[in-house]
Amino acid sequence: MVVGAIGVVYGDIGTSPLYTLRECFHGTHPVAATRDNILGVLSLIFWALMFMVSFKYLGFVMRANNKGEGGILSLLALATSKADPNSRGNALLICCAIFGAALLYGDGMITPAITVLSGVEGLEVATPVFKPFIIPITVAILIGLFSFQHLGTGRVGGIFGPVMCLWFLTIAMLGIYGVAKAPGVLAALSPWYGAKFLIQTTREGFVVLGAVFLAVTGAEALYADMGHFGIRPIRRAWFFFVFPALLLNYFGQGALLLNNPEAENPFYQVAPRWAVYPLVIVATCAAIIASQALISGAYSITMQAIQLGYVPRMEIRHTSSLERGQIYLPQINVLLMLACVGLVIGFGSSSKMAAAYGIAVTLTMIMTSVLFYFALRRVWHWPVWKAALLSTVFVVPELVFFGANALKITHGGWFPLVVAVGIFTLMTTWKTGRALIRHRLQAGYLPFDLFLEDLRNNPPKRVDGTAVFLAGNPNGTPIALLHNLKHNKILHRRVVILTMVTDEVPHVDPLRRLEIQHLTEGVHRVIGHFGFMEEPNVPKLLELCSDRGIEYRPMETTFFLSRETIIPSPKHGMAIWREKLFAVMSRNAQSATAFFGLPANRVVELGIQVEM
Questions:
Q1: Which of 95, 84, 70, 471 is CA-nearest to residue 304?
Q2: 194, 210, 391, 409 - which has most CB atoms within 10 Å?
Q3: How far is 317 from 440, CA to CA, in rounded Å?
């Protein structure tokens, strides 16, 4: 478990030594590589890792897990679990979480690009001959990485841990090699050097905090990936292996800069000349693994967002018969690949790309701290002063880091913000649009008790078999059922009204999976409960009903769905441009037949027009 945690969870933060110190002293807003500045920056990196990773995330935030699952959407479910769903405060929290999730998509686009490009740039250190080929090689690796995603992480997951263990052992040995040449660099463990650096450099020190933050950008990913391994293996891996290796490497690079302030790529230049090529290979493999973790995270977030109703239905492929968390979303994969390739070509170097890196994560961390406060208050019932004090301790440094990163907006930091605003707009438009559609349809719903009464008083012709009507409203009469009676004048002998409900938990207890009501006239109401990390499958759900008095015979069952055609209208609802956007999203959503795993040759769709 510990080796697996090293491989999957620490990929992002484990590749940060490739570019962090280089950005501090040779990046967009560098500081002079004097002895005091080098020791000051190293001190800030050390204490940033101690505070953000060891104290905040491993010490506190990871305790806020939703039945073992972490991440900002899981934290949202905790923070809002005992609040009025219609309150303005609750709506604000939801907006914070959704924007934080949207920011993670920007991070998921930049991380593969910057990590792979940073690894390949080592070839340029070995010999200038490779300089014209850095971008093409990086693009080829990224295309290859995304092209193999459909195979699933399960097939290569076995090598993740060993390769990352080799990576951390390698960077630790490089660090020891560098520190041995200038042991005085270890003085930077004292917070005094960091404080002195900020006091003496003032503006320059504040600006360089944006580069220092690159060392901790993977902290939010630790929380999101917690469900794969659990808290204990992640903590043990960090304190006994990952953290020491990172510190040794940072201090080894710092020792090189003390002896050679002009070193432009200290990560590779700290290595002996003969070791550069092998180091490039190991660094590129580590970068690919780090990218894989972020790509898989984007799939996971999208699946959660689909189940929670913030994203239209998309094709979800399970790539492992053993691990349900291993999924592949073709549409997201293509979008991420195009974004990563575009970033590499557009920015041209990892140093320029570093300016766009960090701002998205700082904002997500701030959102996490805000949600964590409400989790402390509502779930663990902490006093206001105590929860506010701890949350303030988290938020204040994050606001400082955000301010430092905000200075990089014109140098590329705008990219993740534009991506986040765009995705946030899509997610909120879909959620609001679906709510409006439900409201319009509910206004025309026939109360179910009246339907049953009419069925008794005016029985239609009954035919053999079972009819399953999918209904979004667990109380009303499905529109498809009414249309079927209106146009076909018949009803099956057994009618199942099926509603799929996504609970605000990652995985639903199998004992709570089904709610069944056996009504009159051969009508049954079934409510299936799923977690936001589970994929609903109607046939499998109906198989569970066989033990509860509703025998499922696939070849004798017909599924009835209603398909809405959205008509944008300026009269009410959202702004007209958002209604048109919602209509486009609705037309391009995956069909309910495919999403719910229905047999296509047993499905009947009945259309309905809905004016927004």
A1: 70
A2: 210
A3: 33
